[in-house]
Amino acid sequence: MSGRPSSYTEEIAHEICTRLAEGESLRRICLSEHMPSRITVYSWLLDDRYAAFLTKYTRARELQSETMIDELNDIADDASNDYMETVDNETGAIIGYKLNGEHINRSRLRIDTRKWIASKLKPKKYGDKLELSGDAEAPVAFVIRDMTKRD
């Protein structure tokens, strides 16, 4: 009887990192029968014997955000299911088209999810930025008050 692999191999490590970089989740990768469980992968990441794997895994996660950003335009530009045919029940003839709100909302969710994940994996590049600025006539001023004293 054979079970999931639990011994580290370069081949498995390479496949995990490649699939991560291509945008697949570790959860989905580990659902494959020939892949170890997530707990096993996490144990390898914490094991000093596999420091090279940790480095490759970290790089793969960084590339994963780039893959997700690359997918945004593809998702946004794909209008193939934005409309559904309406069919006459008696004749089977197409009588028109109606907006497929479910598909459009799913596409929006896919885009928002990828943007959110990319902002967490690479916050400096894809995260929200808060910028405070002023100009010479109206500079930003910081006022520190002693809240223990009453005015």
Please give a structural write-up.
- The protein has 151 residues and is mainly α.
- It is 52% helix and 7% strand.
- It is built from six helices and two strands.
- The chain has a two-stranded antiparallel ribbon with strand order 1-2.
- A hairpin with a 6-residue loop joins β1 (83-87) and β2.
- α4 runs antiparallel to α5.
- The chain is flat, with a radius of gyration of 25 Å.
- The N and C termini lie far apart (78 Å).
Helix content: 40-55%
Straight-line distance between termini: 78 Å
Question: Helix tally?
Answer: 6
Low-confidence runs of at least 5 consecutive residues = none
Q: Provide the spatial order of strands within the biggest beta sheet.
A: 1-2
The overall strand count is 2
Biggest sheet, open or closed, and with what strands and sense? Answer: 2 strands, antiparallel
Which structural class do the helices and strands define?
mainly alpha
Instruction: Categorize the overall geometry.
Output: flat
- Sequence of secondary-structure elements: HHHHEEHH
What value does the Rg take, in angstroms? 25 Å
Q: How much beta, percentage-wise?
A: 5-15%
